[in-house]
Amino acid sequence: MNTPRFRDRERFDARDKVRGATQYAADIQFRKPLFAMTVPSRIAKGRVTALSTEAAMRVPGVVRVLTHDDFPAPPPPPKGKDGPPPPPPTLEQKIAYRGQPVALVVAETLEAAIEGAEAIHPSYADEPFSSRMDSAGAKREVTEEITAGDAAKALAGAATIVEGFYESPTQHHNPIELLATTAVWANGRLEIYECSQGVNVTRGAVAGALRLDPAIIDARSSSVGGGFGQKGLAQRQTALIARAAILTRRPVKLVSPRGQIFHVATYRPNSRHRILLGANASGKMVAARYHAEHEQSRVGQFSPSEYHEATIRMYGIENYHGSAANIRLDRQAPGYMRAPHPQASCFAFDSAVDELAYELDRDPVEFRLANDTRVDPKTGRPLSSRFLNECLIEGARRFGWSARTPAPGSMTLSDGTQVGWGVAAGCYPSMMPPAIATLRIGADGSTRFASSGHEMGQGIRTAIAAVLMDGLDIDAEKLEIVIGDTTAAPQHMTAGSWGTAGVVPVAGKAVERMHVAVAELLAGRTAAGNLHQQLAAVRRPFLQIEVSQLGTGQDQESLAQLRQGGFVAAGPEYPNFTTMSYIAHFVEVRIEPRTRRIRMPRAVSIADCGRVISPRTAASQIRGGVVWAFSAALREGTEIDRRYGGYLNNDLADYVVAVNADIGDIGDIDVGFIDQPDPLANAAGLKGLGEVAMVGASPAIANAIFHATGKRLRELPIRIEHLL
Ligand code: MOS
Fold first, then answer.
1. Residue 544 and residue 532: Cα distance in Å, rounded?
2. Is 387 in contact with 676 (CB distance < 8 Å)?
3. Neighbours of 563 (CB within 10 A)
4. Above pLDDT 90, what percent of the chain?
5. pLDDT recorded at residue 683
6. What are the tens digits of pLDDT across the range 169-185?
7. How far, in Å, from the CA of 688 to the mean position of ligand 1?
8. What secondary structure letter does DSSP report for 219?
9. How far apart are CA 286 and CA 161, in angstroms?
10. Residue 81 pLDDT > 70, yes or no?
11. Does the beta carbon of 227 sit less than 6 angstroms from any atom of ligand 1?
């Protein structure tokens, strides 16, 4: 696939979305549906000893109450593995966290379901529990180390060392779309409609939990109102709703209330980061010793070792020793949340880099430029492309960095407003799953492209359409892009910033194959008009081709695994090279002299994501990432209830997120791209963008606050009280 620059196009689904025509999971209507509500556990640890459903069944409209008796017993733990596996997401008597569902009420109306759920008061045998990393009973579990060179030796010989202890809080996903699931059981098949980034995962999880053949399950997720990792795995509710549909033989729907979502869905765990960073006499960074640990459930598998995946590759630091630990306690499992590890680890690491630059009396941009690398320090192999320095240089130019005075507190305005200019960088692994696609062009003007992928608001259909519309003379009005549907094509999870890399190369291949198929069909004849008209001219109703694309370095086995619903993303370590995406963020903060309110009037973010496929949605991704990084740095923090477990601020009134007034106009987040195709990553020359967009913006803000005030704040969120 040749990759010339793509032009700007409007979003493929913009009109439908602004008209409210796009159907999200909860919008899809079914005949005679039942409505469900879960009953959350009031204890944090222990067992349900008795659960009477009588009061709930007396509520008019309640049809059924599901309890643990309605589910198969958990399978025995696999032999020879460390520790117990996570329990299946069904109803159980054993309680592992406050808010765990203990019953499901199904009723003719939503009101009856809620009233029925409130009428259930189980008896519990409770046990002592640990709610936070410093609670008694929290258990430390060391995980895999990631190393390069000899950090201890290099630090011993370093001329300058900085040491810092950084902390990122528990933070919860709060997309506007609540977690919604509808299940339909008919003619021996189970259909699931759920907001999901991986309908194959949904299918597999339900099949496993309910002991069903995955082949009888179809799962669909056509449009999601915000994914960001919250929807990568099946939801806690999915198998419950599926079971309810099977038992009642009616469509059953649950839209989980936000307060419950805080207690059952994945979240960004509280994490702590101790970093020692050393430079040699000429001011080159030579060594990092970095320990990261985070809160974890008793059986959760979200690995703290991954905090090092980005930081070890951020700069040319030859000696790196990364260690990590889980702190196991009694809450639901943490998990993926946009830029899951690098959001916290690059906050810590690029804050430390900034501290070292100040310690060495170096300009923070120039210092980063001087610590570039051409190889992956983790593997010693080449990087397929790296334009981080170009990002830094272009960002500094657009921001006007040269007008900055370096001393902290030196840019105060006449009214006492403190102004700070900060910079930081981010990187994120660039990965790629295999894909299978079918493309059908009809003589009636229609085009249908079906492949793997999920639309979560990032604009994946716009990227696919860019390739199809650039490559084929077809009618844009009748282009249908079918993704997020197990009946349309094998579905890989869309996460880890590999959505575009998963579907754009296969779309490019489909375009090429279609040209060949059309040429074969015409067999030397010439037909006038676009492809639809050409088909009509030779009386061919439609032409359909199927293509597949392996991830770079993968073999046919990966395609077989994709067909079976397996997880097969390649990278960022490919056979002979490593591929990372990069970004540089420049921000201005203003701190009001009396209230100490922090605002961010402007930011400049320049990304290296290889070839940009969809300029408009790519720029949106970065704006959204910068806004969220602001929110993560200055606003968001979940309050954990030490008395009962669970969370205190579990609504949008008390869980504070960034609002428009916090950040200048959205246009004041100035976004740019290097837009150089990566020669090795894949045929399209693209690298991932969704997550790197956010990485590094939080430390840029903290670094700007240091520049404004002289206060080095190492714990997020940074709030007014820290600046008094
Ligand atoms: Mo992303 S946090 O891998 O959806």
1. 12
2. yes
3. 14
4. 95
5. 95
6. 999 999 999 999 999 99
7. 11
8. E
9. 10
10. no
11. yes
How far apart (Å, rounded) are the C-alpha atoms in residues 99 and 628?
A: 27
CB atoms within 10 A of CB 661: 7
Q: How many residues can be counted in the chain?
A: 724
Q: Ligand 1 centroid vs 497 CA: distance in angstroms? A: 7
**What is the pLDDT confidence band of residue 73, given thresholds at 50, 70 and 90?**
confident
The residue with tokens 């240089």 is 393
Asked if the model's pLDDT at residue 153 lies above 70, the reply is yes
CA of 661 to the centre of ligand 1 (A): 27
**Sequence-ordered list of residues with C-beta below 8 angstroms from that of 573, at least 6 positions apart, any chain:** 376, 378, 379, 381
- Tokens standing for residue 496: 């880890």
If you ran DSSP here, which 8-state letter would residue 426 be given?
E
70: CA distance to ligand 1 center in Å?
A: 33
CA distance 344 to 168: 6
Nearest to 66 by CA among 251, 239, 264, 204: 239
Average pLDDT for residues 696-705, to the nearest whole number? 98
Question: Is the CB of 341 within 6 Å of ligand 1?
Answer: no
Q: How far is the CA of 493 from the centre of ligand 1 (A)?
A: 10
Please report which confidence band the pLDDT of residue 152 belongs to, taking 50, 70 and 90 as the band edges. Answer: very high
Tell me how far the alpha carbon of residue 193 lies from the centroid of ligand 1, in angstroms. Answer: 20
pLDDT tens track for 471-509: 999 999 999 999 999 999 999 999 999 999 999 999 999
Q: Which of 171, 224, 266, 691 to mutate to test the pocket of ligand 1 (most atoms within 8 A of CB)?
A: 691
**In angstroms, what is the span from residue 336 Cα to ligand 1's centroid?**
5
CB of 340 shorter than 6 A to ligand 1: yes
Instruction: Determine the pLDDT at residue 664.
Output: 79
Residue with tokens 């005075």: 405
C-alpha distance from residue 593 to each of 531, 587, 662, 675, 718 (Å): 65, 19, 16, 41, 16
Given the DSSP bridges, would you call strands 598-608 and 669-673 parallel, antiparallel or unpaired? parallel
pLDDT at residue number 667? 66
- Of the candidates 119, 130, 136, the residue with the CA atom closest to the CA atom of residue 57: 119
Instruction: Determine the distance from the C-alpha atom of residue 674 to the mean position of all C-alpha atoms in its chain, rounded to a whole number.
Output: 23
Tell me which residue has its CA closest to atom 4 in ligand 1.
229
CA of 462 to the centre of ligand 1 (A): 19
What average pLDDT score do residues 188-216 get?
96
Q: Do residues 59 and 275 touch, judged by C-beta distance below 8 A?
A: no
Span 651-697, pLDDT tens digits: 999 999 999 888 877 668 999 999 999 999 999 999 999 999 999 99
> Is the Cβ atom of 336 under 6 angstroms away from ligand 1?
yes
**pLDDT score for 79:** 66
Tokens for 89, please give them.
């997401």
Please give the pLDDT value at position 85. 66
Say yes or no: CB of residue 229 within 6 Å of ligand 1: yes
Select from 172, 228, 455 the residue to mutate for testing ligand 1; criterion: most ligand atoms less than 8 Å from CB.
228
**CA 289/CA 321 separation, integer angstroms:** 5
